[in-house]
């Protein structure tokens, strides 16, 4: 759409007003600040011959931009065109014409039209500015307008055109170009802009540095993120958020949390973006104390957290094993979305409290929310891990017939796992063969785990053969088959699997556990912790515990050791599992009665599960252990999983 033109027959009617011309600028500024755009424009149009300073029009356009008022902006532009036309007839048009062509007003008009989604009008104003020599601010306004409307390629083309016209880019232009590069994932172009920044004589501002951080973060160049961050003369909350998000995105959870801690120490504080980055980290490393501390800081904030932050907070509590905390937040939310419901449902699923989860699901449907694929993954996995096979089968049927959701590979994996855990291996295998799509590794893996539970060696061998073809480098499948052979006493089979792993270069992941004590995370690896195990406190406590545990019937189950060695050696290896080291460290460094919260990077072995149950009995401690698949809540010699895991 072209710039509005004024018909030749147009006449100006001077409307009556009591406002004195000398007070017009201050009155208009006041009206602009209060958002009374109709009154402001009526006043301007009532004094068509009264000259006004540039800052008056600038303030009015700024108010139009803030309220995204396209109509009022166009009225003002028409007024300026009309003044130019009228003044030109009288031979005195120079002042007003130069006012209309001022870069500040051009920039404001371009910004207004772009925020209102009229990129065509913005471009029309921009093209009119190119008649002379447009400064950088006009180019940047147009580039930002393109980017704002999803036209990042056009923004970069504009940047190139600006360079061709020998307009020297500054910090605003650099920031706009880098933003478009990040949105497009155009790493080479972004590198080129970075090179220009390095060569530029002017000092880069914080916005440019933050744009560089975002570029390298979006392009997966985290080493460059760290380097740029280290070079920054000053860092603000946006800079720190980029670093925390970068670490978290790479799975460097401890580094992400350390960066969040450092930004607090340096007095940067946090915003809601910071919390949506760090709360998932707390959830993944089971850092409940730190998560609670963040929650406390949120409660002290004068502004209310948005729904996305509250969803992250609920997810943190659910994945740290305290779903009741998450439910309280959920019940207190003024507004919820589907993610809010799914988060609490998933919390009930991983806590094995599916009776409450199913009630909440019914409440969700009654509230008018339609479940999605994520909803049913949570429900089906929860039913699988709690033995609610019939309820799970009904949900799978409702998913397709009542809610029209086609089962994905994840849904089929849950269904196969559910049937397999219930000992219905033939039905599970029938589902795999009749699902109408190629089974994924997770589906075959669920079936292999069922073979482990029910010691079905022939079926396990057949399934493992398929898994080794589709996931040749995934160590869990090899370890599970080794477990099945070891439980059956087939040591030649264990040896064969070990040799296969060596030949294919597959390495078993080292067991690692961590425990949070006094806001610090302490990490242990299987077979490690030599200094701890050789300490006097450890050996004294270990002897006392083993004597007490043997007194209530505990004996090590050495079948979990996948090596054909003596029983004494097997017992020694089992005692060095990382979750036991973490538990012993917790017992030594916490007061009696304090719950122990331990996270393990692997699936807990059968003997460690029995050991934890007995430990909770003889120490009268609550122990919460989270592995890669489940939460185990040990108390008074029993586990919440009821040994169904």
Q: Would you mind describing this structure in some detail?
A:
The chain is mostly helical. It is built from 34 helices and 6 strands. The protein has helices at 24-33, 37-46, 54-66, 70-89, 94-100, 103-115, 119-129, 136-148, 152-164, 171-184, 187-199, 206-218, 222-231, 237-249, 253-265, 272-285, 288-300, 307-319, 323-332, 338-350, 354-366, 373-386, 389-401, 409-421, 425-434, 441-453, 457-470, 475-487, 491-504, 530-533, 536-551, 567-575, 578-589, 606-619; strands at 512-517, 520-525, 596-600, 623-626, 631-635, 638-639. The chain has a 6-stranded mixed β-sheet with strand order 2-1-3-4-5-6, with helices on one face. A hairpin with a 2-residue loop joins strand 1 and strand 2 (520-525). The longest helix is centred in the first third of the chain and has 20 residues, at 70-89. It is elongated, with a radius of gyration of 33 Å.
């Amino acid at each position: 759409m072209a710039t509005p033109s004024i018909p030749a027959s147009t006449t100006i009617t001077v409307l009556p007003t009591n406002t004195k011309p000398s007070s017009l600028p201050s009155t208009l500024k006041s009206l602009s600040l209060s958002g009374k755009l109709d009154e402001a424009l009526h006043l301007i149009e009532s004094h068509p011959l009264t000259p006004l300073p540039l800052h008056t029009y600038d303030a009015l356009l700024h108010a139009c931009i803030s309220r995204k008022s396209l109509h009022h902006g166009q009225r003002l532009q028409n007024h300026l065109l009309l003044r130019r036309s009228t003044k030109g007839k009288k031979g005195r048009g120079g002042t007003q014409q130069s006012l209309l062509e001022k870069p500040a007003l051009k920039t404001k008009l371009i910004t207004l039209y772009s925020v209102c989604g009229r990129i065509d009008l913005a471009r029309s104003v921009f093209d009119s500015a190119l008649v002379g020599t447009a400064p950088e601010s006009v180019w940047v306004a147009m580039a930002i307008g393109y980017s704002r409307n999803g036209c990042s390629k056009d923004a970069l083309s504009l940047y190139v055109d600006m360079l061709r016209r020998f307009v020297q880019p500054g910090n605003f232009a650099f920031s706009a170009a880098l933003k478009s590069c990040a949105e497009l994932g155009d790493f080479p172009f972004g590198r080129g802009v970075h090179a220009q920044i390095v060569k530029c004589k002017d000092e880069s501002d914080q916005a440019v540095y933050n744009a560089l951080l975002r570029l390298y973060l979006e392009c997966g160049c985290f080493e460059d993120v760290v380097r740029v961050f280290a070079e920054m003369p000053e860092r603000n909350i946006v800079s720190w958020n980029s670093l925390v998000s970068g670490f978290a995105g790479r799975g460097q959870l401890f580094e992400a949390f350390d960066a969040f801690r450092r930004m607090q120490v340096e007095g940067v504080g946090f915003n809601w973006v910071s919390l949506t980055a760090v709360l998932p980290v707390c959830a993944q490393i089971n850092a409940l104390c730190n998560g609670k501390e963040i929650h406390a800081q949120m409660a002290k904030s004068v502004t209310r957290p948005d729904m996305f932050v509250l969803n992250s907070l609920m997810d943190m509590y659910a994945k740290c094993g305290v779903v009741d905390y998450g439910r309280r937040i959920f019940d207190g939310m003024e507004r919820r979305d589907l993610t809010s419901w799914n988060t609490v449902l998933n919390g009930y699923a991983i806590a094995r409290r599916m009776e409450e989860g199913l009630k909440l699901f019914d409440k969700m449907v009654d509230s008018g929310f339609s479940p999605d694929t994520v909803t049913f993954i949570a429900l089906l996995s929860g039913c699988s891990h709690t033995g609610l096979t019939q309820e799970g089968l009904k949900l799978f049927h409702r998913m397709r017939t009542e809610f029209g959701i086609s089962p994905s590979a994840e849904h089929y994996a849950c269904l196969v796992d559910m049937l397999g855990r219930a000992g219905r291996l033939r039905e599970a295998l029938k589902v795999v063969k009749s699902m109408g799509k190629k089974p994924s590794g997770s589906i075959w893996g669920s079936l292999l785990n069922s073979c482990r539970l029910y010691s079905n060696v022939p079926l396990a061998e057949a399934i493992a053969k398929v898994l080794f073809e589709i996931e040749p480098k995934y160590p869990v499948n090899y370890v599970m088959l080794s477990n099945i052979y070891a439980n059956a006493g087939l040591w030649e089979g264990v040896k064969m699997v070990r040799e296969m792993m060596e030949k294919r270069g597959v390495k078993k992941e080292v067991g690692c556990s961590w425990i949070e004590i006094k806001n610090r995370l302490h990490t242990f690896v299987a077979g490690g912790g030599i200094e701890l195990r050789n300490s006097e406190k450890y050996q004294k406590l270990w002897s006392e515990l083993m004597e007490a545990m043997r007194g209530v019937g505990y004996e090590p189950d050495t079948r979990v050791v996948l090596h054909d060695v003596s029983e004494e050696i097997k017992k020694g290896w089992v005692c060095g599992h990382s979750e036991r080291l973490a538990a012993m460290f917790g017992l030594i460094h916490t007061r009696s009665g304090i719950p122990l919260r331990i996270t393990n990077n692997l699936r807990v072995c059968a003997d460690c599960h029995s050991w934890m149950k007995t430990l909770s009995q003889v120490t009268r401690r609550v122990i919460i252990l989270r592995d890669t698949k489940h939460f185990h809540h040990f108390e008074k010699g029993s586990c919440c999983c009821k040994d169904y895991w």
